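Figure S4 source data
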Amino acid sequence: MRTKNEPGGRDTPTFIEAARRAQIIEAAIDTLVELGYASTTMAEIASRANISKSVISYYFASKDALLEQVVESVYRAGAETVAEHVLPASSATTALRTWIRTDVEFIGSHPRE
């Protein structure tokens, strides 16, 4: 069975593929928050997402591959938030201050992640 880790022959996943992957990642985050890493299973994630475990396997090759995507998703969201505030900074000092403030604000406002 081929997993959808990379969209087949396309530069970007379809809207449905992206939505399904996001749904699975959100369910994985919820499971990790509540149960911790050791108790997080593909079956539990699937149950929380109201899908079968085989659907997760279609999009992610393994639990580790899924959790890597969870980490990447959270880091990307933080980086995008920080970048939109830091890039307009007029000096390195302002950029550093803005980066620290925005990063701390992001972490504080996203305790689930």
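Figure S5 source data
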Amino acid sequence: MISIIIPVFNEEKILKEFLDSLFSQTGSYEIIIVDGGSTDKTWEIASSYPKAQVIKANKGRGSQMNAGAKLAKANWLLFLHADTFLAPNTINKLSELVINH
């Protein structure tokens, strides 16, 4: 399994498209979204995905990524920003690499 950690701050314009794309991936993964105190609808959008764990942390990529990593259940961590779109089947391929290690 891979833990995908996503630090966000005021990402309402792209977050739904990003998460829809990410949740279309196959493979074994969990998603942890770490909000740094957004003032737009980022929290509401992220929270509307029941398979994602959504938490709050102090603003700043480092503190947000560390907060997400502390909750991660997998030994492998993938940090993504909300403007990063993966090619289809990327997570499945990464999962296969994890299994073979």
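The chain has a mean pLDDT of 94. DSSP finds four helices and four strands in the chain.
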